[in-house]
Write a structure and sequence with these properties.
Elements: H1 9-20, E1 37-41, E2 50-52, E3 57-67, E4 71-79, E5 88-89, E6 97-98, E7 101-109, E8 112-117, H2 130-135, E9 143-144, E10 149-158, E11 169-178, E12 183-191, H3 195-211
Antiparallel strand pairs: 1-3, 2-3, 3-10, 4-9, 4-11, 5-10, 6-7, 7-8, 11-12
C-alpha cells in the first residue's frame, strides 16, 4: 500500500489556527498535497503580496499550478483567519484596455497603479467564468491535462484594513474548485510588507488613544 503524507483539509485548518494564536510553524517542512494539482505560491516582485488601497486592501497571489490529473478549474477562493470578508478577484480594468490588450489592475497602491496583462493573470482562467467567455478565443481557460502547467497571478481586493500587529507572514488557504464543485485546499504563505500603510495605522491608533 502506498502511504501518503499529504495533510488533510481538517489538519490544515488546525495548523492555521495554531499559527493564528502565535504558535511558530515552518510551513516549508510540511508535506504538500499533490493531487490533483501541485500548487506553489511565488515571491512577489514588489516584496509584498498585500497592498493598502484608498478603500480597503489589494492582494496578488502569483501561482504555479501543475496538474497531476486532468482537471477543469472552475473557481479560486482564498480563506484565512485574518480575512473578515472574502477576497473579490478583480474584473478587466476599464481604464487600461484596447487593441486586444486587457489588464487587471490595483489602483492607488503605495507603488502606484499595478497593471497585470491578461496573459500573466489567472482571474479569467476558469472553465465557465464570464471573464473567460469575453476573452475567448484569445486565452487559455481552466482546462488542464495531466502534466500541464498554468502560471500567473490572482489579482483581488477586500474591504478590510489589517492591524499593525498582524505580522509580516500570513498563512491562508487557497481553495481550487473543479467543475463538479469539489474543493481542493492548498496552503499559501503571503508576505505582508507595507511600511507606509502600517505607519499610518499606527499613527491613527495612537491618535485615538490620546484623544480618549
Amino acid at each position: 500500500m502506498i502511504r501518503s503524507d499529504a495533510l488533510q483539509p481538517a489538519q490544515w485548518q488546525i495548523l492555521r489556527r495554531l499559527q493564528a494564536v502565535g504558535c511558530p510553524l515552518d510551513y516549508e517542512e510540511l508535506p504538500e498535497p499533490t493531487y490533483p494539482l501541485r500548487v506553489r505560491c511565488a515571491t512577489s516582485a514588489f516584496g509584498t503580496h498585500l497592498f493598502s488601497l484608498p478603500s480597503g486592501m489589494g492582494i496578488i497571489v502569483p501561482l504555479q499550478i501543475i496538474a497531476s490529473a486532468p482537471i477543469t478549474i472552475n473557481r479560486f477562493d482564498l480563506r484565512a483567519d485574518w480575512l473578515r470578508n472574502p477576497v473579490t478577484w478583480v474584473s478587466q480594468c476599464r481604464q487600461h484596455w484596447g487593441n486586444f490588450k486587457w489588464y487587471y489592475c490595483l489602483h492607488g497602491t503605495p507603488h502606484g497603479d499595478l497593471q497585470f496583462k491578461w496573459e500573466t493573470a489567472l482571474n479569467h482562467r476558469t472553465g465557465n467564468a464570464g471573464e473567460s467567455k469575453r476573452l475567448s478565443p484569445f486565452i487559455q481557460d481552466g482546462v488542464l491535462k495531466r502534466g500541464a502547467e498554468m502560471k500567473g497571478s490572482l489579482v483581488g481586493t477586500f474591504p478590510d484594513t489589517l492591524p499593525v500587529s498582524i505580522g509580516p507572514k500570513l498563512a491562508a488557504t487557497l481553495n481550487i474548485e473543479d467543475l463538479f464543485g469539489k474543493k481542493y485546499p492548498y496552503s499559501v504563505v503571503l508576505e505582508n510588507k507595507q511600511p507606509a500603510a502600517r505607519a499610518e495605522l499606527y499613527k491613527a491608533s495612537n491618535a485615538d488613544t490620546s484623544s480618549g
